[in-house]
Design brief:
Layout (H helix, E strand, L loop, with lengths): L4 H27 L5 H24 L11 H25 L6 H29 L4 E6 L3 H11 L6 E7 L13 E4 H9 L9 H7 L5 H37 L3 E7 L5 E7 L10 H6 L4 H8 L8 H6 L3 E3 L6 H10 L12 E3 L1 H5 L10 H17 L2 H16 L5
Parallel strand pairs: 1-2, 1-3, 6-7
Antiparallel strand pairs: 4-5
Helix pairs in contact: 1-2, 1-4, 2-3, 3-4, 3-15
Length: 409
Amino acid sequence: MAFDRRETAILLIGDFLILIASLWVALLLRNLTIPSFGYFDANLIPFLPVFFLSLGIFYIAGLYEKQTRPIRRVMGTRILGAQAATVAIAAVLFFVLPLDIAPKTILILYLVVSVIAESAWRFHRMNREIKEGRRTPVILVGSGPMADELYEEVNNNNKYMIRFIGRVEKRNLSTGLAEGVVYMDAPFLYEEIFDRVPLDHLDITQLLESLPKHRALYDAAKRIFDILLALSIAIIAIPIVGLAAVALFIESSMPFFRHQRIGKDGRTFAIIKLRSMLLNDHGDPALQKKNRVTALGHVLRKTRIDELPQLWNVLMGDLSFIGPRPELPTIATVYEREIPQYHMRHLIAPGLSGWAQIHDYDPPRGGADVARTKRKVSYDLYYLKHRSFGLDLAIAIKTLRTLLAFSGT
């Protein structure tokens, strides 16, 4: 269901004016002086196609549809992804076309300013509608614990732009004829609100049918990005890893551990880490009781230096920077038996960080934990369904914040 025409027009005009204003602010920041009319005009003309491209991508991203905007974090991620895609396309065009402007720095500033400004504008409109009580009446289609959780979350929380006025197990077209009332399927809305898929209500066939079909360009670009970023970080990481390895060699003559993990398509590979524990227990419960983090290992874990050797795994293609966290083979066997959808997380390369890691604050530890892992898998499969440059960027930003807080364990 789209916004009413008046609201759509307000958003469209507001978006266009904000994009123009974002360019003006970017030029101001670029030169630290108020742009002259001639200078602004010289940059505005080549940027006009970029503005229209942004509006088109906003439409594709669903930013003009009310029911896909129930929560703030979803809107922010979509705006960031849409503008990042627009700027990437613009960068290619600007560097190919014979223009009299130097857009490199301007594009970066424009991206930052436009994302902040667009987010503030959209949140303002959302807050205004909620304050005026213009929450869209919705009939929830679904049953069971998933629908119960949704109903309670939405109707007991005023931050959403929808409210449930009833629920049915199946769609009833005659009910939908009521003016201003729409149906919303519980599984779809569950993902939008909780950022994870409802495992108990989606079987493997449904999940496979819901996966995006054309990802070749995204997958290729992500692989190239992984290689370039790993090489860039390695320049700084190699001396750090070298010093840590020498200290570990002096301590115990065994600086590195190799851990077996399950990767893409169920293949086994060995991740490389600096040793932070007394011994490599390989997930064995008996050995885990005797194992502990060493004093030096505690520092390496806290700073995440112990994971730097995994850059080699990224270069080899075993790991990506973003993806589901790889699991021990023995524990993965248990999960594949107990959780029917578990093996689907192996459709893509595992990652150093991922959607589950930044959302699931009570992850499984030690041996197999089916209950906690089901929750983790629900996040992993959400990423599998919705992975994009915008989502990867959001994960990367939150991961970087965690790294800077030295919150490693």
